Amino acid sequence: MSSIEEKFYGLPTTAISDALKGINHMDSAIKPLRDSDKIAGRAFTVNVPAGDNTGVLRGIREAKPGDILVVDGKGFTNRAVAGDFVIGLAKNMGLQGIVIDGAIRDIQGIRDLDFPVFFRASTVAASVKAAPGELQVTISSGGVSVSPGDIIVGDADGVIVIPKANKEEVLQSTLKKIEKDNEREEKYNVSRETALAYLNSVLD
């Protein structure tokens, strides 16, 4: 039997957003490095001062395999909190992916790692190491509150946060939304006539 996190994997974030009534999606600037990247798993939260990555390193060490590291980097984009070496550590520690409300660097090196990274911006400047940061606390990432254990789902459209208390309800609503969308596609998007029938039904 698959875990509920696994059941969310590959489900479109757009359908999940519809199930959540358009809330809990991160800022649209936070996108995957590669359009093919997908994640769905438990949030391991990290709160760091702008441009400091000590907490990121601590999070990579403490997170469990399969977790998604979610970093509140304060949206700061002048210094990267992770480059290809740090991302490589996360991969080798068994994390599923990283979401950073902040900057990364070493873009080509990270692409070569074949590891999902969602981020706000890239820069050339390295991080500093001045403060330990906080682990497994409620954070704000991309304008959304994220608590430890919330489910994070990401794809080419962006990142969405599913509160852990509502995960089963959201999953069922998402599956129903996908089924409804598929039925609409099969009914209306097959010819000019059916497309026109749909347009008339919603516009007239």
Automatic annotation (TrEMBL):
UniProt-annotated binding residues for substrate: G83, D84, F85, V86, R105
InterPro entries reported in the protein's UniProt record: RraA/RraA-like (IPR005493), RraA/RraA-like_sf (IPR036704)
Gene3D superfamilies, per database record: Ribonuclease E inhibitor RraA/RraA-like
Keywords: Magnesium, Metal-binding
Binding residues annotated for Mg(2+), in chain numbering: D106
Domain of life: Bacteria
Cofactor(s) recorded in Swiss-Prot or TrEMBL: Mg(2+); a divalent metal cation
Enzyme class (EC, first level): lyase
E.C. numbers: 4.1.1.112, 4.1.3.17
Glycosyltransferase in keyword set: no
Job of this protein: Catalyzes the aldol cleavage of 4-hydroxy-4-methyl-2-oxoglutarate (HMG) into 2 molecules of pyruvate. Also contains a secondary oxaloacetate (OAA) decarboxylase activity due to the common pyruvate enolate transition state formed following C-C bond cleavage in the retro-aldol and decarboxylation reactions.
Subunit-structure text: Homotrimer.
Membership in a protein family: Belongs to the class II aldolase/RraA-like family.
Protein name listed in UniProt: Putative 4-hydroxy-4-methyl-2-oxoglutarate aldolase
Organism: Psychrobacillus insolitus
